[in-house]
Amino acid sequence: MNKAKTENLREKVEGNELDLSLSNLTDVPVKELAALPKATVLDLSCNNLTTLPPEFCTLTHLVKVDLSKNQLISLPEEMGRLSSLQHLDLYNNKLTMLPLSFSQLRTLRWLDLKDNPLEQSLAKAAGDCLDEKQCKQCAARVLQHMKVLQEEADKERERRLLREKELEKKREAKQREKEAKEREAQKKKKAEEKERKRKEYQAQMAALAAQEQQKKKKEEKKKKASQNQDKKKPTVSVPPSKRSLCSRLFSWLLRLLLLLIVGAAGVITVCQVTELRKEPFCTPINLYVHDTVSWAQGLEVVQQVIQKISDLQA
Length: 314
What we know:
Layout (H helix, E strand, L loop, with lengths): L2 H10 E2 L2 E3 L10 H5 L6 E3 L20 E3 L20 E3 L20 E3 L7 H7 L5 H99 L9 H34 L8 H16 L2 H14 L1
Parallel strand pairs: 2-3, 3-4, 4-5, 5-6
Antiparallel strand pairs: 1-2
Helix pairs in contact: 5-6
């Protein structure tokens, strides 16, 4: 803080009033004013102020402020913090609107907004301020007007917050849906990868089985080739089914022939040895046997066999 400047301001204090009018001020010396809490009445009229710093609103000891005949285009948003302010003169400035916090100036009893390019609704609420009564009415009407605007702003803010919450919920829902889709896609990708690996494994197993089968076939071919080399004459292989059929057929024929021979021998024996040889049916059989024996005895081989049998008996 500039001590000399504070001392200069202190010299201008008369009672509870500090007159800084007609001082060609472009900035408000807030820090110096804060050091003078007894100066509850502040006159800043007829200067070159275009704005008030936010720190000005910390001067809560101020009861009366004159800002008339400046170049103010706006007031700080924190204006409502001036909790002790009762009298505010804003005559002949360039204000179009007031901050919403203006509605919090509950102690304000006097207000002058003449000769400001106020927006229509605020100008209508302010009315004239030509005497004490009108300026008091102006303060009351403006405070009421600003309360309405504050309520509307609060409702709008609530609606905006509600919309933002709804949008946030929608964004969260979309995000959850997106994450769910990503999880599903990842799951599908893993399943496809697993299926691909399974097919690759089956293909590898099939290839190994085919190689093993080819190896066995080659070994069988080598074995057969070795067996064929050991044989001098190639034999025509008969399929097992055909060999089995031929074998059974030959067996049946052999059995049938054996039965015929046994039956014929039995009949010949009966007709040669038993009393039945005198029967008519044995006559042709005995005659056939006699002719066959005579024919056989005429064979040289048979004679040799008979001779050897006779020699053995002698």
